[in-house]
Amino acid sequence: MMQRAFGAACGLWLCFATTLAAEEHPVVVELFTSQGCSSCPGADVIFADLAKQPDVLALALHVDYWDYIGWTDSFGSPRNTERQKAYARAAGSRTIYTPQMIVNGMVRVEGNDPEAVAGAMTVQRGQGSDVALTLTREPGGLRIRATGPEGMAPVRVQLVRYNPSETVTIEHGENAGRTVTYHNIVTEWQALADWTGEPALDLLAPLEGDDPAAVLLQREGPGVIVAAASLP
Q: N or C end of the chain, less CB within 10 A?
């Protein structure tokens, strides 16, 4: 695989299917992808399967650094690129690439390598969490409640909105002629507050529109995601 500092790299196109056991805390899988990357369709297929699993919170972040090669990703955002760079810096790396999946904010794997993805998810699924997080839609917005152990490390409370699916016909660039259905496309990522575990978290966040909402509690870095939940 060829990589470059804050650039892009592509690998083999692979398909993947798996059945995951339901658990109390979902495993968060962030896919950094692009409509303009020839290696991303395989990862998008893997990700589409993950998005169906009840114990997975799958979030697709389309980056913008492939736009120069002939096709502007209709979901691409510099904010998503910056989040991927932040993960690289936290890991002591200067390299980003597509497709990449990051599992629970901790494990960075090639997004079109199904065995690596499955292995990372198995490890993270076994970690468990001592933070309880619940979400409730209310007339004034989204009620976020959480409790954690005494002395827990601070976490950032983040609200994510996403589009469940959209089909795109790519007319130019490396994937010209492909029609791809994308899933759980992140449209908004907002930091709401920092929480230290005491007192218990009880926050009402404004919530407009019908798109699903997810909340992540993540340590600084960005680091490990200690709890996550979503509502359709």
A: C
Helix/strand/coil for 21: coil
Kindly report the number of other CB atoms within 10 A of residue 54's CB atom. Answer: 9
Q: pLDDT, tens digit, for every residue of 61-78?
A: 999 999 999 999 999 999
- Give 179-218 pLDDT, tens digit per residue: 999 999 999 999 999 999 999 999 999 999 989 999 999 9
pTM of the predicted model as reported, rounded to 2 decimal places: 0.88
Q: Domains in the chain and their CATH numbers?
A: 26-231 (3.40.30.10)
Measured between alpha carbons, how far is 189 from 171 in angstroms, rounded to an integer? 28
Q: Is the CB of residue 47 less than 8 Å from the CB of residue 18? A: no
Picking from 11, 95, 26, 96, the residue whose alpha carbon sits closest to that of residue 58 is: 26
Q: In what order do the strands lie in the sheet with 141-147?
A: 132-138, 141-147, 201-205
